[in-house]
From TrEMBL:
The UniProt record lists the keyword Mitochondrion: no
Organism: Musa balbisiana
GO molecular function: metal ion binding; prenyltransferase activity
Any GO BP annotation: isoprenoid biosynthetic process
Pfam family, one: polyprenyl_synt
Signal sequence extent: none
Superkingdom, taxonomy of origin: Eukaryota
Pathway: Isoprenoid biosynthesis
Cofactor(s) it depends on: Mg(2+)
Protein name in the entry: Geranylgeranyl pyrophosphate synthase
Length: 336
């Protein structure tokens, strides 16, 4: 989706980076000349940042789930949790903590917890009674390796561990903040969060749904967990209520953006370019943004969501906000 940044940010041809001088007014904190640190923030290397954070999250997840008795259950937990994902939720938690001046170690337990919850949602989503998918992250899905019963209780164990991990491993954070983070994750995955999105999705199968229902599904299935990750990062990092609300609105835009882009790629890319079956949504009759509003309007919606996401970061330090600003652009620009 190069057109998103091309139109929004007037990216210099061939540079692959956004020169500070070319940033649109909406992405600037102030109208004066920007300083060296801010110019560096605009040249931010998101790929290196994400690789570095993902490596540390993986090491922390590895420590959080040692292979102990009963071995097969813990092997199953580790199989899904440590498989190669993008780690967007945990990175969002760490970046949000650092946005408000907290350090990485403080947010690592909430970062690990959100990846555990994300892993549960993928394990359960792949089950024959749900999406019935045999492949996940390029390897056989959990139930194909460990069996359906083990896949279900692996999810149960990971949910319990996620909450235990936040409560027991978050260090040097006032207890009321940890408690708020626990409540945030509970609300994010519950019957008005992720589970609600999944329920409405299943319930809508085979029915003609409008934009309102489509949006409800994506805001609950995808955006809600991202919102919670960002919110918990700010909570343990010492941020105030207004900062929590800003990052939640940012993450909500990013979550919706992720889905709009997914739908657009399905109809604009080949199977080779995507690395998964292109045109699957159309073939299965799935309701998508391009189907409901047309490709051009869906592309406009993606652009609007990037602008809205970035606008939520305007009140924060530009340098500290660089990872989140570039993450939104990365999600808009991804090609597969
Ligand atoms: C109680 C946690 C819990 C869940 C039960 C099954 C279920 C309810 C919800 C399913 C939610 C679901 C599968 C949402 C999709 C979210 C999403 C955008 C997944 C795509 O993730 P990738 O492929 O992730 O971008 P990785 O981590 O592989 O990079």
């Amino acid at each position: 989706m190069a057109y998103v940044t091309a139109r929004l940010l007037a990216r210099a041809p061939g540079s692959g980076r956004v020169p500070a001088a070319l940033l649109s007014a909406s992405t600037r904190l102030h109208d004066g000349p920007i300083g060296q640190a801010e110019a560096a923030a605009d040249r931010f290397d998101l790929t290196a940042y994400m690789a570095d954070k993902a490596r540390r999250v993986d090491a922390a997840l590895d420590r959080a789930v040692p292979l102990r008795y009963p071995e097969q259950l813990h092997e199953s937990m580790r199989y899904s949790l440590l498989s190669a994902g993008k780690r967007i939720c945990p990175i969002l938690a760490l970046a949000s903590c650092e946005l408000v001046g907290g350090d990485e170690a403080t947010a690592m337990p909430v970062a690990c917890a959100v990846e555990m919850l994300h892993a549960v949602s993928l394990i359960h989503d792949d089950l024959p009674c749900m999406d019935n998918d045999d492949l996940r992250r390029g390897q056989p899905s959990n139930h194909r390796v460990f069996g359906e019963g083990t896949a279900v209780i692996t999810g149960d164990a990971l949910i319990a561990l996620a909450f235990e991990h936040v409560a027991a491993s978050t260090a040097r954070v006032p207890a009321d903040r940890v408690l708020r983070a626990v409540a945030e994750y509970g609300s994010a995955i519950g019957s008005e969060g992720l589970v609600a999105g999944q329920f409405v999705d299943i319930d809508s199968e085979g029915k003609a749904v409008g934009v309102g229902v489509l949006e409800y599904i994506h805001l609950h299935k995808t955006a809600r967990l991202l919102e919670a990750a960002a919110a918990c990062g700010v909570m343990v990092g010492g941020g105030g209520d207004a900062e929590v609300e800003s990052v939640k609105r940012y993450a909500r835009c990013v979550g919706q953006l992720f889905q709009v882009v997914d739908d657009i790629l399905d109809v604009t890319k080949t199977t080779e370019e995507l690395g998964k079956t292109a045109g699957k949504d159309v073939a299965s009759g799935k309701t998508t943004y391009p189907k409901l509003m047309g490709l051009e309007k869906a592309q406009e919606l993606a652009q609007t969501l990037v602008v809205k996401a970035e606008a939520e970061l305007h009140g924060f330090d530009r340098v500290k906000a660089a990872p989140l600003r570039h993450l939104a652009r990365y999600i808009a620009d991804r090609q597969n």
